[in-house]
């Protein structure tokens, strides 16, 4: 659970920075405001998670800028708005699916934080879904779908292989309610249904784990 929580906090810190970079260049004023608000939320979620790690005896980074257990996709600025929305849907979505699995965690401090995080993540999901519908109806549809597939290669691996030892141990300890396969399937079903409603047939592929870095929970490609 320690590596999972460290990576959750680091990825939320990195996602907050990537969102913030679009706060002045989003395609609409409304989206720029949303990007700034989501950035603030993600950085706040990160900072509230590091004390949980500290309580587990981990020398955690509490300065709000995060460590190195983040997705390779978040190492650099998101290259375009399609990539931003893909991260909004899939990176934010995968992390939120994990947090939702911690609501009734036997790790009480994480259960308490999970409830608060989920309250704020509702607006992130609404933003991503609204923009997904808009992009699927316009000339950016194919480019957007390509970004989703690229992002899935990283975000879809975050929970690890189906038999991920750390997540399996967390499930057995009652710290997390869903294993890797169940969390990944929730994401796949939700996004497939969202796009199908717009007439876009997308299959998020099964993932292999060659080169998977379990300690940093990232795929290097």
Automatic annotation (TrEMBL):
Entry-linked Pfam families: PaaA_PaaC (PF05138)
One GO location term (cellular component): cytosol
Gene3D superfamilies attached to this UniProt entry: 1.20.1260.10
Protein's GO biological process: phenylacetate catabolic process
Protein name: Ring-1,2-phenylacetyl-CoA epoxidase subunit PaaA
